[in-house]
Write a structure and sequence with these properties.
Rossmann fold; seven-stranded mixed β-sheet; about 35% helix; globular
Amino acid sequence: MEFLHRATPGEGAIALLPGAWNPPTRAHVAMLRAALEWASEAVLVLPRSLPHKEFDGAEFTRRAEWIRRIAEAHGLSAAISDGGLFIEMARECYTATGASQVFLVCGRDAAERIVAWDYGTAGSFHSQLDEYQMLVAPRAGAFVSPENLAAGIHTLSLSDTWHDVSSTEVRQRIQAGAAWADLVPAEIAADVAAAY
């Protein structure tokens, strides 16, 4: 894990919010701010490769710059990971930081994909929760954890204001010529406009 910016380096609990950042939104910042109730450091993470989608839209270096600028402006950290799976990012984080605990932050929709993902071996996702725990933000509804995973998956407290804000919504509004700038952090708005 390569840190682009660290707000509060230490060996306490660290929350990672991985994303494609196409583009980052104010909802992402709100999720990481909420994660600070669980961790002493919150990190926007850009994987070098994505397990479930291709990079399209803004180029990788631009996305890395966006998360660095957001981190600096909001008291957060930003990093690039080599791996794209939660377990890979958690392990990279432990190695790079010596963290006492790693939380992976995501929305309800991502949590459903992650829990249902075919990891090749029955029960392998359950064993991953021995290495990290999840903080799941509601998005168009709350995530209902399977009972056998409930000890490792927690609900992130997030205002209803952010439930429908997404990178997809930002891109769609830009393409439609609708108002969108209030959905992204102010420090990247001008560059987002240039990228899309």
